[in-house]
Amino acid sequence: MAALPTFLPLPEAARKYGLSQARLRSLVESGKIKAAMIGKNIVVSEDEVKDQAVIRKEDLPEYKKHAYLKGVPIWISEAERKYGIPNPTIWRWMKSGIIARLGMDGNKTLIDEADVAYCAEIYRSRNTKQGRRLFDNNGLPYKPKTGPLAT
User: What string of pLDDT tens digits covers the 151 residues of the chain?
Assistant: First the structure.
């Protein structure tokens, strides 16, 4: 038997996924998410609401594993040695905002070790070739529209 879609009452979906009820209603009206009426209540497709919700990288289980390192400064060259990520890659992630810059210590740039550990985990978990995107604009693991990582 095929899995049936899950529908949630609109207020519950809004609370669960951090969206306003007005935003959900506009997504329903524009046809971007499926909805139905049960009595006088609107229910929405949980899968489609999930796709519309912007998740923060801090909410991902891969990040939560390293949350104890949040705010711990590490030099870029030290991060390169400790996590096995090339220095230019760490710089690029820092410049794009995926890794937080905490400040300077002399001429050494200090970055957030929790962000580095999270990025290193995603870097190692993906078996991609050089030049492939690992992160989207929100710092979440990139999901291509087609291919082996598409969902």
Answer: 667 888 999 999 888 887 788 888 888 898 888 999 999 999 999 888 887 776 678 878 889 999 999 999 999 999 999 999 999 999 999 999 999 999 999 999 999 999 999 999 998 888 766 777 888 777 878 877 655 554 4
Contacts of 97 (CB under 8 A, 6+ apart): 139
Longest alpha-carbon distance in the chain: 66
Number of continuous H segments (helices) and E segments (strands) in the chain: 7, 6
Least Cα distance to 135 among 23, 60, 27, 42 occurs for: 60
What is the residue-wise DSSP string for 25-62? Answer: HHHHHTTSS-EEEETTEEEEEHHHHHHHS---GGGSHH
* Strand order across the 7-9 sheet: 7-9, 41-45, 35-38
Q: Which of 130, 135, 92, 133 is nearest to 111 (CA)?
A: 92
SS3 (DSSP) at 93:
helix
Distances (CA, A) of 150 to 56, 78, 143: 19, 34, 6
**Residues in a beta bridge with 111:** 74, 101
